């Protein structure tokens, strides 16, 4: 509910003249949804006029409903935009009538509103109060807009300062980068020019180009005490290695000796009973080896006799297993002899290897 200023044409004047009137429209409670009503106050100083516009006041010639008619009148009397108004207003003081003429190719009357003058001071007071409150609201809106404009201007100034600072920093950084790049580029150009000059010098006079020598890496020298300690450690390690080699050789020799003794014991255990009884009593490993040599010699003689065809010599053809003794003449004799087909030898008696001494085992088996 606000006051609007409208421009009207004075219908009573002989010549067309315009007047300024002030109009205020207020909605009234509707009885039903098909009806609508507004109260219009028109101020033509110094007189205040009032009128009521409702759906029943709609002319019959209008092709619209009563609600649409009231809405069209209210819109016409409260212009909001600067667009060209739909109606032209004509005001007649003697008749107290406001006529709405539609703007078209020819003037056509839309409606006519009849007002009544009011002499009540309360109506004037209410109207003036509304005008004052409206002005106060508008003043507050204007003040708020001014404050907002000031804030925006302050923000704009700060933004400009920050932008200038950022641009200055950016420019300085770019200048530093460009200077550094130019320095590197100039250094490379100088180096390329120097190398080209050296190459030309070499091509002309055969002089070797001067190349930068790399600095020799200095090796840290050990102190005399450190040398002595390293030599002592090396000598200790070599002595330990020699001791270990000697131990392994002794262990290998002992293993070969034990293996030879075991072979001799197994060979003797495979001898027949008649040879064991006629054999010399053995009391040591040396006696055993000597008796084995005699047996091998007897076998060689028998083989030679059989090859010559001598039948006078009668020897039992029982094979004797010869122990593997590491002697060269025994290996040659074994390679030369051609033994006859051997019968299946008797199973050797197991040798007890858990005794304290190998010689005791041999003596026990011989006995």
TrEMBL record:
Biased-composition ranges, Basic residues, are 210-224
Bias (Polar residues) ranges: 267-281, 304-316
InterPro entries, sorted: DNA_repair_prot_XRCC4
**Keyword Disulfide bond set for record:** no
Where on the tree of life does the source sit, at the highest rank?
Eukaryota
Q: Does the keyword Coiled coil apply?
A: yes
Question: What does the record give under GO molecular function?
Answer: DNA binding
Stretch list, region Disordered: 210-281, 302-367
Residue ranges that the Swiss-Prot or TrEMBL entry lists as coiled coil:
135-205
Bias type Basic and acidic residues, positions = 229-241
- Biased-composition ranges, Acidic residues, are 242-255, 353-367
| GO CC, one annotated term | DNA ligase IV complex
Keywords on record: Coiled coil
Q: Which GO terms describe its biological process?
A: DNA recombination; double-strand break repair via nonhomologous end joining; response to X-ray
What is the designated name of this protein? DNA repair protein XRCC4
Q: What is the originating organism of this protein?
A: Phytophthora nicotianae P1569
């Amino acid at each position: 509910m606000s006051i609007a200023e409208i421009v009207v044409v004075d219908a009573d004047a002989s010549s067309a003249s315009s007047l300024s009137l002030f109009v205020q429209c207020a909605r009234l409670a509707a009885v039903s949804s098909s009806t609508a009503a507004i109260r219009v106050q028109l101020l033509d100083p110094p007189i205040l006029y009032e009128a009521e516009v409702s759906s029943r006041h709609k002319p019959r010639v209008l092709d619209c409903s009563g609600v649409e008619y009231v809405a069209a009148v209210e819109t016409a009397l409260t212009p909001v935009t600067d667009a060209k108004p739909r109606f032209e207003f004509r005001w007649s003081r003697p008749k107290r009538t406001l006529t709405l003429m539609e703007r078209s190719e020819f003037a056509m009357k839309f409606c006519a509103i009849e007002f009544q003058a009011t002499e009540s001071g309360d109506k004037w007071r209410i109207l003036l109060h509304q005008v004052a409150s409206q002005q106060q609201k508008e003043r507050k809106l204007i003040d708020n807009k001014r404050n907002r404009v000031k804030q925006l201007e302050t923000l704009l100034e700060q933004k400009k300062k920050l932008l200038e600072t950022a641009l200055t920093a950016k420019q300085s950084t770019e200048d530093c980068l460009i200077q550094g790049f130019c320095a590197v580029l100039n250094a490379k150009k100088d180096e390329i020019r120097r190398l080209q000059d050296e190459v030309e010098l070499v091509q002309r006079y055969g002089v070797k180009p001067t190349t930068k020598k790399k600095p020799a890496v200095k090796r840290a020298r050990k102190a005399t005490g450190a040398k002595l300690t390293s030599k002592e450690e090396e000598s200790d390690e070599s002595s330990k290695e020699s001791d270990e080699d000697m131990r392994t050789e002794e262990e290998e020799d002992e293993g070969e000796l034990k293996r030879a003794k075991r072979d001799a014991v197994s060979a003797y255990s495979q001898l027949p009973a008649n040879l064991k009884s006629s054999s010399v009593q053995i009391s040591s490993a040396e006696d055993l080896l000597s008796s084995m040599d005699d047996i091998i010699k007897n076998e060689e003689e028998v083989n030679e006799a059989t090859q010559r065809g001598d039948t006078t010599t009668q020897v039992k053809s029982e094979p004797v297993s010869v122990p593997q003794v590491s002697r060269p003449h025994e290996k040659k004799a074994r390679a030369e002899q051609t033994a006859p087909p051997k019968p299946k030898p008797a199973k050797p008696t197991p040798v007890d290897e858990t005794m304290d001494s190998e010689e005791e085992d041999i003596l026990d088996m011989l006995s």
